[in-house]
Every structure is written in C-alpha cells, then in structure tokens.
Design a protein that fits this description.
72% of the residues lie in helices and 0% in strands. The chain is mainly alpha-helical and 122 residues long. It has one domain. Helix 3 runs antiparallel to helix 4. The longest helix is centred in the middle third of the chain and has 26 residues, at 36-61. It starts with a helix and ends with a helix.
Length: 122
Amino acid sequence: MNVWLGWVWITVGLISGAVVGLFFHDPNWLGGYGAWRRRLVRLGHISFLGTGLLNLAFAFTFANQTGPAPPVLASWLLAVGAVTMPMVCFLTAWRDGLRHLFPIPVASLIGAALSVIVQGLL
C-alpha cells in the first residue's frame, strides 16, 4: 500500500504544483507571496510530495529485511497523514478556522515515525 500511495502522491504533488504554478506569476494571487492562503496552498502542494516520499521510505526500509514484518500501525498512520496533510492545508487556505485540524496529520505522521523507531529497537 505504501509504495503505491507514495508514487500516486508524488504524481499528484507534481500535477498540483503545475496547476498552482500557473498562477504564481501574479504577485497578488491569493493575497501576495507572503499571504497566509498562498503559503498554505504551497504547503499543500509540497505535502503531497513529502508524504509520498515518507511512504516510499517506509516501504523501502522494510523491503529487504528478513527480520520482523513492517509495523502495520506505522503503515496506516503514514497513509492517514499523507491523505490528511494536504487536505488540511488546502482546507485551511480556504477557511482559517480549519487550522485546528492540523493535529490530525501531524500526530499521524509522528506516530508512524515513532512506531518505526520502536520496531527498530525490538
């Protein structure tokens, strides 16, 4: 699942970057370069790529190991984080109050990382 999700998310990140890149030439787009909305849209686009790479890193971390199986919890938490991070970024760019949803993707991704670390210590 994580390999597939990683490559799909990287592709979506590249496409979303191309789409929002069509408007970057306009210095006033979404309130200007330093505006909250514009920064959140950029973060949403980059979060597709970043969380896609995290999913690939997870999958390849355990690809050639003969030891214990990859932690299932980390796999699912990475998927939740990958789906919710760009979604929360774009929703927050739309409605400022939705920024309170950021603990969902952040906690998911931190939980996944900790689960991988614990697996490595066992």
